[in-house]
């Protein structure tokens, strides 16, 4: 869902909101992935226009794939495993932002605990790989963040 003629692009609006208020932002990577597919925009270009430094927490989830009016659509349902495309986008975010507290959401279709733990471990591996890649280069803005960040699994309510 989007406005037919937005006055200001969403990433620019969020960047200004954070700048003017000083508030931190939550980035739902699955929502960005789903919206970019359904609305036909490049999620990496969206990230280019967004202020990743304002991100204080990241959410990851899965989505359903359905058909509507003869077209494939994605629905952010928080009831599926985190798919490869979302992991790829998360990796891009971590490469640009650095380790950031991450929550894996699952509100429906709860799998075995071991599956949820495996997803949390995947997020942690992506953050560790980034840390290993940037090393101790203190000139990099991402190394000024915590050397690691927690990964939580939310099994829904």
Tell me about this structure.
The structure is a single chain. The protein has helices at about 10-20, 30-40, 45-50, 85-95, 115-135; strands spanning about 25-30, 55-60, 65-70, 70-75, 100-105, 150-155. Helix content is about 40%, strand content about 20%. With about 160 residues, the chain is an alpha/beta fold. Strand 3 (about 65-70) and strand 4 form a beta hairpin. The longest helix has 22 residues, at about 115-135. It contains five helices and six strands, in the order H-E-H-H-E-E-E-H-E-H-E. It has a single domain, classed as TIM Barrel.
Helix and strand arrangement:
Blueprint: H1 10-21, E1 25-28, H2 29-39, H3 43-49, E2 55-60, E3 64-68, E4 71-75, H4 84-97, E5 102-105, H5 113-134, E6 151-154
Parallel strand pairs: 1-2, 2-5, 5-6
Antiparallel strand pairs: 3-4
Number of helices: 5
Uncertain segments: 136-147
Query: In percent terms, what proportion of residues is strand?
Result: 15-25%
Let me know the number of strands.
6
Give the CATH level 1 class. Alpha Beta
Mean pLDDT: 87
